[in-house]
Amino acid sequence: MRRTSRDIRTANRYGVLRQIIARSPVSRQDLAAATGLSLATVATLVGELLALGLLTEVGFEESAGGRPRGLVGVDAGGATLVGVDVAETRVHVELFDLALNVLDRADEELRPGESAPEEVADHIARAVRAVTGRTRDGGQEAAAVPGSPGPPGAPERSGRGDGRPVLGAGVSVPGQVDREGGVSVHAPRWDWHDVPLLRLLSERLPDHPLHLDNPLRACTVAELWSGAARGHGDAVVVSLGTGVGAGLALGGALHRGATDSAGAWGHTTLALDGRPCHCGNRGCVETYVGAPGIVRHLRDLAPGSPLFRPGDQSATLAALARAARDGDPVALAVIRETARFLGAGIADLVHLVNPEIIVVSGWVARLLGEELLTAVREVVARRAPARPLAGTEIVLSTIPTNPVALGAATFALERHLSDAGAAAAAERRRGGARPAATPRAPRP
Amino acid sequence: MRRTSRDIRTANRYGVLRQIIARSPVSRQDLAAATGLSLATVATLVGELLALGLLTEVGFEESAGGRPRGLVGVDAGGATLVGVDVAETRVHVELFDLALNVLDRADEELRPGESAPEEVADHIARAVRAVTGRTRDGGQEAAAVPGSPGPPGAPERSGRGDGRPVLGAGVSVPGQVDREGGVSVHAPRWDWHDVPLLRLLSERLPDHPLHLDNPLRACTVAELWSGAARGHGDAVVVSLGTGVGAGLALGGALHRGATDSAGAWGHTTLALDGRPCHCGNRGCVETYVGAPGIVRHLRDLAPGSPLFRPGDQSATLAALARAARDGDPVALAVIRETARFLGAGIADLVHLVNPEIIVVSGWVARLLGEELLTAVREVVARRAPARPLAGTEIVLSTIPTNPVALGAATFALERHLSDAGAAAAAERRRGGARPAATPRAPRP
Ligand SMILES: [Zn+2]
Ligand SMILES: [Zn+2]
């Protein structure tokens, strides 16, 4: 969509907070240098973030020949954020401080057959309450807050771990998601069509704002705020798992597309009339570089290989990764064959998008690691011309924790910042001289 | 690259001027509605454009129950712009008014063997002088301006057609271009490597600012300012000629990428291990949907077809287009085969970029027209899922003139606006209350 001056103000607020998270504590002068914004703009944005309670003043540093410079840092002891990664067989929830450090985790298993929207929503709500209803050192429950008793029958927990307010919770669910409407448009694994998941969750978790999105976009914003894409203008985040996608982070922001469906790289065609894909087409990227595609390379190259773990795709890939690291020729051949397709697909992204960096993430990338990346870089170097390629780094994700939960929490943080920006703009229109804190400001 | 608040001010200036060109004459109120900007922002930007001499006040319209609204329009009788399309066998130059209407044209033939950079630069300079040195009704030459005599030996023309100042000239050359450095990095047809074309042209045309870029990007900005992409947030301009590309116009601006090479869609892989491509890879999109690829479909399907015009690819395609319109089964089969590949490639763009509109342009698209587009839309509808596709229109370019020359002139206009913005910002920093006209302002 068209960008407005409010978009750019929100984007600047994101950019400044990203740099503060990366460099905390930091002076306004260093932030101006890191973001390319003027000192006056940085000072205004820092003032807004201080008023929102996201930052604190943390002292002074001496500056050469000048007066001491004030330092600001993220208020890591202040509010919290929740990130939810709903996968096919379990719900994983993490609680974050405002510097996006993990404070707590909880899991709920989804048993086979437990696929009714209400059942999944119950599991999500229980896992979220588990992290928001206990302190950082575990166990102790916060007192219930009057007026927010939670759904009938649920344990009386407050939605405020350790008395610290929760700014919001982001929830990632697989498949097609209508973010604005809070609807799971299609989740093939559970045969969901147009499930109003956000409404089901709001009934169960009425205490804080909730946001719905999908794993690909969550991984992409996680890299943008906390990973290898931070500070880069144009980045592509290639996500390799059972499914495959490529999130586009252009001009420092997620590119969503006209119907919020950009990034479906897994179903772009790499070999017209090639392997059949579950989407109905043939030769999609995903059929060659997704986990089932890699297992098929193994089957094609070494049908009776002892690396197979029948019925367990991730164990097979783990065995493959170990064998490749030990120099096993079959495992190395499978990695070369995977890299032949993945390198061609990544070269296509270099040709079309010409990004500064391509970050390869997802559990398959984490398993196969540098063995796969080294082979991919060689293929890309053979296929892409020198000029675009010279501008593009290809790296593994360096996020050590669950990137989907991190990204989901990041969406909650972004939404808080953008709502706060809208409130500040409304305040300015009403004649207030300075942007003020929003109704959701975390100051108690 | 990261966007700054100056970028957004420049983008807003572009957006407002685009709408004025489309709607001239128009009120500030209607501009605010069309651009989504506030009336105050529109009034400021219109003030800047008036000060730059790009607009004029053209009267008033009655408004329901209010005071009459002032109307502004492009100052079509004011300054001019030059667009240069350097193709393989000829240089085509057009002179435009500020509403991007063509005022005049000139051509220079490039004879086989005439490929030395100085020779090509001479032809370009001669064709530019032909349109800037005569009036709209042809023939009459403007008086030479003292101090700008042109290069030695050249006819004494002023660079100011009809006494109207030339704001700038944009030059499109095929191949890889380093826009900032003004260098043709690689032009395969002439075997050019790192030719400093802008310097050669500045020596010959010292009177106005010159800008270098390539045909794909020129076509893309032409669609964005004057074609089907205008007013759309995210658009892709697919260009079909001997070569093939896909310009990305995202958020209302051209996406250039890290090394200014985004859009090389012609060399993304559609059929791994497929037809060999001149880039050294196999199965590139271009080998199936570029002009030589389409001729090859004809040869594969009907080796002895009377549609062949030996040695003349464009005559063959013209014959093919006529035959298809007459229902010739061979021609229709060639179009279906082309659409099978082009539809798969366009479906890939829908998957990855999810644009609001895909504009198909270039001389091959102009020849094959709706026959090709109808077949392509059917293939895309079979391949892309309903959700992203529902958001994407696929249309033929509606630009009736040479889009490359138009786009090249548009680059000159954009550069003038962005230089003017930088000058206005410097003025504000020096304490001037209002943005002032730049040294290049077209007022005599
Ligand atoms: Zn597919
Ligand atoms: Zn190629």
Strand and helix layout:
2 copies of one chain form a homodimer.
Chain A: H1 5-23, E1 26-27, H2 28-35, H3 39-51, E2 55-61, E3 69-74, E4 80-86, E5 90-97, E6 102-109, H4 117-132, E7 166-172, E8 176-178, E9 183-187, E10 192-195, H5 197-204, E11 210-213, H6 215-226, E12 235-240, E13 244-250, E14 253-254, H7 286-289, H8 291-301, H9 313-325, H10 329-353, E15 357-361, H11 363-383, H12 386-390, E16 393-396, H13 403-429
Parallel strand pairs in A: 4-7, 7-11, 12-15, 15-16
Antiparallel strand pairs in A: 1-3, 2-3, 4-5, 5-6, 8-9, 9-10, 12-13, 13-14
Helix pairs in contact in A: 1-2, 1-3, 1-13, 2-3, 4-5, 6-13, 8-9, 8-10, 9-10, 9-11, 10-11
One zinc ion binds at residues 267, 277, 279, 281, 284, 286 of chain A.
CATH-level-4 superfamily name of the largest domain in chain A: ATPase, nucleotide binding domain
Strand order of the largest sheet of chain A: 6-5-4-7-11
Q: Strand pairing plus helix content of chain A: what structural class? A: alpha/beta
Order of helices and strands of chain A: HEHHEEEEEHEEEEHEHEEEHHHHEHHEH
* CATH architecture level-2 label of the largest domain in chain A: 2-Layer Sandwich
Oligomeric form: homodimer
CATH class of the largest domain in chain A: Alpha Beta
Portion in strands of chain A = 15-25%
Distance between the termini of chain A: 37 Å
Q: Show the largest interface.
A: A-B, 63 and 63 residues
Overall mean pLDDT score of chain A? 87
Number of helices of chain A: 13
The tally of strands of chain A reads 16
Low-confidence stretches of chain A: 135-161, 433-444
Number of domains of chain A: 3
How is the biggest beta sheet of chain A arranged?
A: 5 strands, mixed
What share of residues of chain A is helical?
Answer: 40-55%
Bound molecules: zinc ion
